Amino acid sequence: MKVNGVYGLIAEFEEPSQVLAAAREARAAGYRRVDAYTPYLVEDLAEELGMHNTGVPVITLICGIIGGVGGYGMEYFAAAIHYPINVGGRPLHSWPAFIPITFELTVLFAALGTVIGMLILNGLPRPHHPVFETPFFEQRNQSHFYLCIEAKDPLFDRTTTQEFLLKQKPAHVWEVPA
Amino acid sequence: MSDPLPPANSEAPLRDEDEFAPGAAEWPEDLSRRRFLQIMAASFALAGGACTRLPHGEILPYIRQPELLIPGKPLYFATAMDFGGVGHGLLVRSNEGRPTKIEGNPDHPTSLGRSSVHAQAALLTLYDPARSHAAMKLGHPETWEGLLGELLPEIEKWKESAGAGVHLLTQRIASPTLVAQIQQFLKKFPKAQWHFHDAAFPRSPMPVTVHLEQARVVLSLDAELFGYGGANVPNALAFAKARRRDENISRLYAVEVTPTFTGAMADHRRALSPSALVKFAQDLVVTLRDGSKSSDNWSAALLRDLQKHKGQCVVVAGEFQPPSVHEAARQINEALGNIGKTIDYLPAEASLPPSGLPELVTAMQRGEVDTLLIFGGNPAYDSPVDLPFGEALARVPFSVHHGLYPNETAQVCRWHLPESHFLETWSDVRASDGSESIAQPLIEPLYPSKSAHELIAVLLEQVPTTGYDIIRGAWEQRHKTDNFENFWRKSVHDGVAALPMPPSAKAPEPAAAPAAKAEVESKSLELVIRPDAHVLDGRFAENAWLQELPKPLTQLTWENAALIAPQTAKANHLEHGDVVELRYRDHAIRVPVWVLPGQAEGCVTVHLGYGRTYAGPVGSGLGSNAFTLQTSDAPWGGPGAEMHKIGDGHRFSTTQSERSMEDRDPVRLVTADKPAVEVAREDLPETTETLYPKWKYTGPAWGMVIDLSACIGCSACTIACQAENNIPVVGREQVLRRREMHWIRVDRYFDGDNNAPRLLHQPVPCMHCENAPCELVCPVGATVHDHEGLNVMVYNRCVGTRYCSNNCPYKVRRFNFLKFNDDHSETLKLMRNPNVSVRMRGVMEKCTYCLQRISAARIDAEKEKRKIRDGEVIPACAQACPADAIVFGDILDPASRVAAMKKSARNYSLLGELNTRPRTTYLARMQNPNPEIG
Amino acid sequence: MPTTVQTCETLSERLSAVVLKRPTKLGWFTCIAISFTGVLMLNVAISWLLLRGVGVWGINEPVAWGFAIVNFVWWIGIGHAGTFISAILLLLHQHWRTSINRFTEAMTLFAVACAALFPLLHLGRPWVFYFLVPYPDTMRLWPQWRSPLVWDVFAVSTYFTVSLVYWYIGLVPDLATMRDRATRRWIKVIYGIGALGWRGSAKHWARYEMAYLLLAGLATPLVLSVHSVVSLDFSVAILPGWHSTIFPPYFVAGAIFSGFAMVLTLLIPFRKIYKLEDVISERHLDLASKVMLATGLMVALGYASESWMAWYSDEPNEEFLALNRMLGPYWPVWWTTMTCNVLVPQLLWWRRIRISPLPLFIISLLVNVGMWAERYMIVVVSLHRDFLPSSWGKFHGTVWDWATFAGTIGLFFTLMFLFVRLLPMIPIAELRKQTVEEGKEV
């Protein structure tokens, strides 16, 4: 059932282990629109929340290939096809001399692809987000661990979800306004 | 006038350890350069602009009629230059009416299409903004009318007094017409007197013509056979021929004081101080006469060699040697029957007046001189120190100086009259072999100037007074032919008129040799004074090309030095770069010491032409004035000189600091024990070793061969290249920082024992390598190969990384570190070769094999639907070379001369082991040492 | 690692306080004032250079490359430590790197920025630098791919870009922390923009970590390639002293050597000033010194094999060069290099020296000097006497050479001081993780 004016319910924990457990429980309970907010990377948390593949490496690979092939292609086109000219008696297609630039462009494209890809997948930059409305989030997000069950979740129900969260022995449970 | 650059010796001592090189912050350099530009720009009064200035009167183009002038197509005119009283036949290129390049006239018997550094540099003098622009009276501009106002009354006085108190002073004169005019003047004013003074071309004790080609053994007694002067081209060519012969290769012995080109070419060279040289010459005569045993086996072997080649050898005495040496030489030639075969003695120089500068100065001091007419020259600067010309002149009421520059003499004369450059006026000259040429102008005078002919015509109150009428008139009188018009046209057109006069075979009466009995070698230092090889007695001090041209064997530019032998340096506890007070009799100069291997022991040589005060913005205040040491009785020095160290660490503006070849063999020699095959051995890697396939060329593939047996190291190639390719001059400070711009340089090495070295020369242009290292590393492809295998520079693509220069093993690339090209001076714009772009700051440049000449030939060939003929393309360097040492052409054409030379066993590539595969290769130098001498 | 008991809270508090709460001291102002005068001097030097041309420097024929290239290589070398530490040590799971990697990455960036100035300035016509960049030219002209200088353009710009991205990505979570901890609104806004709205979502963390790891994986070969390419500027040429196959490894080692020297030169004073001895502990000094010692030995091996090859190859030019370096006109350069780069680092065998700041500081300074001398030796001393004795010459830096060099040092320190004042020089988020986890381990 839909609930308006609410982004979701969020539980605040002291320990990373708690949020891990809570996440596991939530998934078990069938919640799907769940996310956690932690001061640093908590291993396995994402998996517990049902994200098994970040999707970043593929982007890196593709961009790297584009950079490499494109780089060598550019050099070959320029030196051998577009403006062929005798330079120091070397052949037009001096492949050994074309390697360094090919390599550099591979790395450059791969790196930029990785970062941009990661940001896009993360939906960043996004200066504002409802979760920031959580009371004391600003002060505590560098030391506390949050688990948020979003209102969009089909199983979301203000009372049942709240009870479920309270079962996980959080420090607090807050309602996050939309 | 301009505050002079710091003289050589006044400069603060500087060491290599000093952190900041001089002008490090560019301020001083900047100032002087800026001033240089300002003066040059400001001094151009007549805004002639780059317009056509076809001369009035009829002149005849060498190839086409001028009225058929096609814009962009150069015309060539034959003319001639008076250089030290000797005529040089020239062929001058004219672009849209502007003379832009001077070459030798191929039809001229002594030029033979070749030229000298001075012929090349004459172009810059023509356009030099520092030339005098107007008549000056007491230092203030005046008009020629103003002059007439004073002159005509004077002439009236002369008529009354029959010219009493009227004195003429001239240098050597090559123009028969001018001599005739002067004779006329003297006839008209019988009491007038004519004096001769020429510090660079003195009276020759015994004028001769040498036939080196006939000579199999040559002995030079300090004779500079290949240096500046009348016969350097014929001599160099003849010697080259005699060297290239397959058998009977000539052998050259040189006994000299200071290293000369002749000594550099010699198989056996011996350095003797002047007094020792006199003794040597006289001993030679004695031993030859009475067959007595010679003192040392060197001269013994020499004598045997001479005697073995009776009538096929020659002994030549140097211009600056005392009559006794000339007499000795003559006696030997006589004894060996050489006279008339290998050497001709010419009649004493009748054209010169008996009276010289001393007579004039005494007359002036006595107050007997009312009028002094100075035609050319600069006696106020270049007179011996014991003849106070300047002071004496104060007692001359009416003095007139006629010359190209407002020089020291112009400053002290009542009148200074601008003289026309020889490219601006009609004249005629007699060459060293007696042949005569008519010199036609190529351009209207840039400034309101007159030629000597015109001036004398005025003095003679003759009409007409235009150069054309004077010369043509004179010739019409001398050559009474029924069809003078044709004769005149042909003579002017060909650049050579009358046939050579036969030299008088008669041996001259033994010169009244003032018994200069060779005083035994005095312990004291002997002073040797010589004109500078480039600025001579200072007359070319204002010519920046000549100033920056590295001087023979020192590679010094922009200054002079006291040259001493290493042993002498050790004996006097002196080091290279020490500044000394050089004292001779009771005069002294401060001059830096140059330790020169090959210099005779116990003597010190200083060159004239420096320390000038009114040369102009370029030439003033450089070096030290050696005239301060010159006395009229010992013009070329003598014993009794002293050196006292007063400073050290002088930084010479030289273009080559290293002397030895450092066990590398850039210059290779072919001698009896080292045959050509061995010398020219190549450690070239097998082409199979290369990772890349060879690039294919379908002719023409341009290449060059430089024959080191022929090259005399005169640097004519360097300056010809500078003229052809608009190469800028950088100035003393920049040379100090090794930023000279010459595209072809002449390296010199001292080989072997530092006390008796062999002197070697090697011209180094761009090698146009087929595997060019420079091209490989250029990030923007600003230097690449063209379809004919040239290594070309694309100036407007160059970003100036200078990587190409670093990777050039020959270091022939030149970089515009600053804005070197003067685009302020209008006259210099007229001078530039329109087919060569002027390079901007920050781009690399280098030898292009004269690309512009190649394309010109290619265009002609394509129009006529034929291949470019062998010899049709001649780079500036090859064209100027007096010894025909540089040969250029298509190396794929087996019939071409260059291909033939590359097949020679002596052919080798410089640094060939680097597999750069240079297109420019060298022929190892032939030596023909006397086996009897170790 | 932290000696006192740290919690996420205290840690975040302390490290952000360095920037947010700590009042700007007079000392900081003096430092930045001094280094900024350097920047002004740099401006003057560059203006004069552009006005007159590269001729204001001491370069000539034959030494057509001088300070510009020496400084370029020197700075690039220094710019290697950062990425090396943050990338390679990350992959090697060297956790101690965490407390210094942000700082060293910043150092890398600024060093590379200084380096990148020189290839531009040393051009005869800097205003057409873009000829080196491939772009659709109407005359169909392209860069000449066979030239190592073009490789440089790509290598250096790639290195700079990747380092910058890498450094920034590492910063994002900490910028978020700064955003949340800042009290004034406008500061919040500024840091907030930088933080891209980071909220510590677990899924974000996962992708973030993956991306960070991949970047490290990419930066590792990159950091090795950059100085290899720079070394090719020399070894591709045929000049004795340049034309050598050992250059790439030898240059990379030298780069990391000098990089770590600079790291120590900077860290030792900073940890003192900002009282971070517990975060940047003796262990860090010790380990950094060990890296220096190791790379120093590699460099020494490089020198040795160069000389040995000169003798073994029996190539006269090479032999001459080897001797000319030791005994020629520039002998002090060679001896400085050997003293500072080979002899002095041997002191690092002793642990006492490795962990005592002052001697270490002095050693690091000497190594910096030594590495500059090494590059001077390679560039100038090889050029001044090459194949033909006729073209041998000398080179002396002019005041403008020195002014430009000193100017870049000023620029470098100015940027460093701004960095430590405005950004968290210690990665907060990563340290949080470590403190908690290691806290557990204990």
Which helices and strands occur, and which strands form pairs?
The complex is a heterotrimer of chains A (178), B (934) and C (442).
Chain A (H helix, E strand, L loop, with lengths): L5 E8 L2 H13 L5 E4 L7 H4 L7 H27 L12 H28 L14 H4 L4 E6 L7 H10 L4 E6 L1
Antiparallel strand pairs in A: 1-3, 1-4, 2-3
Helix pairs in contact in A: 3-4
Chain B lengths: L26 H16 L32 E9 L2 E10 L2 E7 L12 H11 L7 E3 L2 E3 L1 H18 L4 E5 L5 H13 L4 E4 L11 E3 L6 E5 L10 H13 L6 E6 L4 H5 L2 E4 L2 H17 L6 H12 L4 E5 L5 H13 L7 E3 L11 H10 L4 E5 L3 H4 L6 H5 L4 E6 L4 H5 L2 E4 L8 E4 L5 E4 L12 H8 L7 H12 L5 H11 L30 E6 L13 H5 L13 E3 L1 H6 L7 E6 L2 E9 L7 E5 L31 E9 L21 E2 L5 H4 L22 E6 L8 H9 L7 H5 L8 E7 L6 E7 L8 H5 L5 E3 L5 E3 L9 H4 L7 E2 L10 H6 L12 E2 L5 H13 L12 H5 L5 E5 L6 H6 L4 E2 L11 E4 L1 E2 L8
Parallel strand pairs in B: 6-7, 6-14, 9-10, 9-12, 10-11, 14-15, 15-16, 19-23, 20-22, 25-36, 26-35
Antiparallel strand pairs in B: 1-2, 2-3, 4-5, 4-16, 8-13, 17-18, 19-24, 20-23, 21-22, 21-24, 26-33, 27-28, 29-30, 31-32, 34-35
Chain C lengths: L7 H13 L5 H27 L14 H12 L2 H11 L6 H24 L26 H34 L3 H11 L6 H34 L11 H27 L8 H32 L2 H12 L3 H13 L7 H5 L1 H28 L14 H24 L5 H14 L1
Helix pairs in contact in C: 1-16, 2-15, 3-5, 3-9, 3-14, 4-5, 4-8, 5-6, 5-15, 6-7, 6-8, 8-9, 9-10, 9-14, 10-11, 11-12, 12-14
What is the helix fraction of residues of chain A, given as a range?
A: 40-55%
The overall average pLDDT of chain C, rounded, is: 87
Order of helix and strand elements from N to C terminus of chain C: HHHHHHHHHHHHHHHH
SSE class of chain A: alpha+beta
Number of strands of chain A: 4
How would you explain this protein's 3D organization?
The complex is a heterotrimer of chains A (178), B (934) and C (442). Chain A has helices spanning 16-28, 45-48, 56-82, 95-122, 137-140, 158-167, and strands spanning 6-13, 34-37, 145-150, 172-177. With 178 residues, chain A is an alpha+beta fold. Chain A folds into two domains: 6-39 and 141-177, 2-Layer Sandwich (Alpha-Beta Plaits), CATH 3.30.70; 56-121, no CATH class. A four-stranded antiparallel β-sheet of chain A has the order 2-3-1-4, covered by helices on one side. The longest helix of chain A is centred in the middle third of the chain and has 28 residues, at 95-122. Residues 1-31 and 38-52 of chain B have low confidence and may be disordered. Chain C has one domain: Formate dehydrogenase/DMSO reductase domain (Formate dehydrogenase/DMSO reductase fold), CATH 1.20.1630.10. Chain C has helices spanning 8-20, 26-52, 67-78, 81-91, 98-121, 148-181, 185-195, 202-235, 247-273, 282-313, 316-327, 331-343, 351-355, 357-384, 399-422, 428-441. The model of chain C has no long low-confidence stretch (mean pLDDT 87).
